[in-house]
Amino acid sequence: MTPILELxxxxxxxxxxxxxxxxxxxxxxxxxxxxxxxxxxxxxxAFNMIAGFFKPDTGTIRLEGKxxxxxxxxxxxxxxxxxxxxxxxxxxxxxxxxxxxxxxxARNRDRRVNREKAEEMSAFLGMAAKRNxxxxxxxxxxxxxxxxxxALCTEPKLLLMDEVxxxxxxxxxxxxxxxVLKVRARGISILIVEHxxxxxxxxxxxxxxxxxxxxxxxxxxxxxVSQPAVLKAYFGERYVQSRA
Amino acid sequence: MNTKTIPLxxxxxxxxxxxxxxxSSLVAVVVLGGLALVPALVSDSFFIHSLIMILFxxxxxxxxxxxxGHVGQLSLGHTMFSGAGGYCSVLLFTQLGVSPWxxxxxxxxxxxxxxxxxxxxxxxxxxxxxxxxxxxxxxxLRIWVENTNDFYGIPLKGAEGLxxxxxGDDVWAFQFTSKIPYFYIILIMLAVxxxxxxxxxxxxxxxxxxxxxxxxxxxxxLGINPTRYTTLAxxxxxxxxxxxxxxxxxxxxxxxxxxxxxxxLSIDMAVMSIIGGQGTVLGxxxxxxxxVPIAEAARGTLGGSFLGLHLVIYGLALIACVLYFPxxxxxxxxxxxxxxxxxxxTRG
Lengths: 244, 348
Description:
The complex is a heterodimer.
Chain A lengths: L2 E12 L2 E12 L3 E5 L6 H9 L6 E6 L2 E2 L5 H7 L1 E3 L12 H10 L5 H14 L15 H13 L5 E5 L7 H16 L3 E5 L3 H7 L2 E6 L2 E6 L1 H4 L3 H8 L1 H7 L1
Chain B lengths: L6 H11 L5 H19 L3 H24 L10 H18 L3 H23 L4 H20 L3 E2 L2 E2 L6 E2 L16 H23 L1 H11 L1 H6 L4 H27 L1 E2 L1 H5 L1 H14 L6 H20 L6 H16 L5 H12 L7
Helix pairs in contact in B: 2-7, 3-7, 3-10, 3-12, 3-13, 4-5, 4-10, 5-10, 7-8, 7-10, 8-10, 12-13, 13-14
């Protein structure tokens, strides 16, 4: 697989804390890559560097071969990376369709085309019946879906998703997994940061595990979760010893 | 992929789009059209003068609302643009004999340039900090002009102000002996401003501004550069405000720093759009229609005996409005009329 996104030796330090250290990994075209690790492992920092919210101290981040490290968030959005937020950020006083239209305007000035596209997207999200509701009045899960749809309306090549099922019920989580697979079926590569193992296991083609800012493992999810280094990072030294 | 929309919903979509115009646009056309007929029916000159003042403030408020309502930043320094516009057109006319019609366009560009200069560093500020900075900038300009008689050969004449020499009825000189031409000029300016606001709301700029106001980080993630769009809106707003300033100078044939650059005019503009409905197309017009007659009546009946009474009334109206109609009078009024005509509720 040719990589669409490639991180090489990316590091970021906040004062005395090395948040990400020498991380190198890539997302292949049409791949779903899961980025996991215990709390404070540097997942969100890595994510924010790709999205342009932080500038990496060293290393390169390449989107289809072009270096995007240190670019502004809107330049990265324009370059073809869409993202969702850990706490979803819909435009509260706009309706579902209007929210989606904002995404469309990133690529196209024509209001009519954007409106049609937004209506289509609301159907894709399973929110057609709610398309004229203000985002403020949506449930937390609908807001999350709306945010995903809004990012999709910018026609990204790569989608960054931060904690897609946090706070969702099991049936909602199942719906989200299906939706993400449908997004991939549209030919969009996805980088996903997630805590819920069940979701990561069922979605990811490959996972990358971070701990204290360092990459400790990578590979297919089933293989990675049984590696001692990963178990140690999640459950501690004694858990691994007791199993041995 | 399922692209079909649910048939049940289709009905209300058709209901809103089957009207030739959206209800708010329809109201705008009816109100402005009705106003255009007024001079044919009423010839009382005080009445026409009051109407001109209402339209002038509605125009200024609409121009200011471009930034305050749509970007969500309250600017109380917009008079620096009206002042810059007014002084530019008056000076070009008195010094170089340039028609105020052309001078006001120059003034508009000068104000737009000024707004970019001030906007780029200050738009990073939020809420009260931005408002205070704008007041400071406007006051600096006002005090400077008040104390400058001559600026490299340009006679600003300080606090005394500039008088536009009378030319009688002269279209080219933007001067008329009757008030009626001024009435139509400001009416057309207001109509254009309202139309421009409507157009902007539906364009990429409008959606980007709403997104920035909604959530800056999320807007950035969608490829929107907040600085670019807020600066653009600020410049358009400054341009329109400057045209209003030129009109004011031509209408009274007099311009001075206090009236054209003072804080009072800025407050008037802001209060009218807040009471009418910020970020709406017709809110500023409604706000002006409510407040200007009150101010005129207070000035007319009490005159010198109670100076500044209209400001007290503004204050009371603002308190009442913030308490009972925090989004502006236009929202409850819109709901009332929607119910009256059985239309689906629309916003703005």
